[in-house]
Amino acid sequence: MASLLFHLLLFFIFLCSIPAESADPLGDFCNNNINRSSSQISENIDGLLPLLVQGTILNGYTATSYGKAKDQVYGLAQCRADVSGKDCSSCIQDAAKEITNRCTDQADARIWYDFCFLRYDIKNFFGKVDVSIGIFYYNVENVTDPETFNKQLGALMDQITSQAAVPGNKGNGRGKTKLSPFLTLYALVQCTRDLPQLPCSQCLAIAIGNFPSFCDNRKGCRVLYSSCYVRYELYPFYFPLDSGEDLTNTSMTSYVSVVSKP
Questions:
Q1: Which of 148, 208, 235, 260 is most buried, taking the most CB atoms under 10 A from its CB?
Q2: How many CB atoms lie within 10 A of CB 102?
Q3: Among residues 150, 169, 160, which one has the least CA distance to residue 211?
Q4: According to CATH, what is the number of the domain 2-121?
Q5: The whole model's pTM is what?
Q6: What is the pLDDT of residue 22?
Q7: Domain ranges in the chain?
Q8: pLDDT value of position 241
Q9: 259: Cβ–Cβ under 8 A, 6 or more apart, which residues?
Q10: Is domain 134-260 in CATH 3.30.430.20, yes or no?
């Protein structure tokens, strides 16, 4: 009981320290089929969230559980590998606050931001590929030379997914390729760090396999699953920036989102 009260106090403190206005998430999922069947599950979620926040601020990632037996809750949180510690901290605190606002009665919840991801569930999902929920963003504009673009995109994706599968890279891969003297293609992939090498590769292959359906010939695309993330753009969007590059904050009004649920 004392431990729970301590974590609730920490949770209250960090919620109060977050600015009132937060960035909007890219998407969320509250599983209405898995409700908080007991007050103990709700208490365990409240105890789990500050652990996820603390661990992610320290390490950029954490996967842990809270509670015992049938009321045990499992959680995972992770920041994008290229973002700063400050941006990671801000994002994961926003995520923990917003997920409790949006999924008040559910025991299976996920929330995606540009810089981070957070989820919890009463089922142990660690180490398992989860592509049951997909969020897709694609640019409404098409490229002018689809054949050349798709060939270069495929080669770049092969390169960075191979990077992500290397154990020392912790599921991360990113790179760029020149399409012309004036145009560069940027891409990033990332798995949640609980996934071993093979499941990470499987998740990324599934995500990239959606390109022909949702992002065919598009200037930009994001595929967000609970186990991996894939994105490409015709402007720099990840860190570190090379000399002469500026991080571009393109308006999301030029993008369309699609949510795929079971």
A1: 208
A2: 14
A3: 150
A4: 3.30.430.20
A5: 0.89
A6: 59
A7: 2-121, 134-260
A8: 80
A9: 27, 133, 134, 135, 136
A10: yes
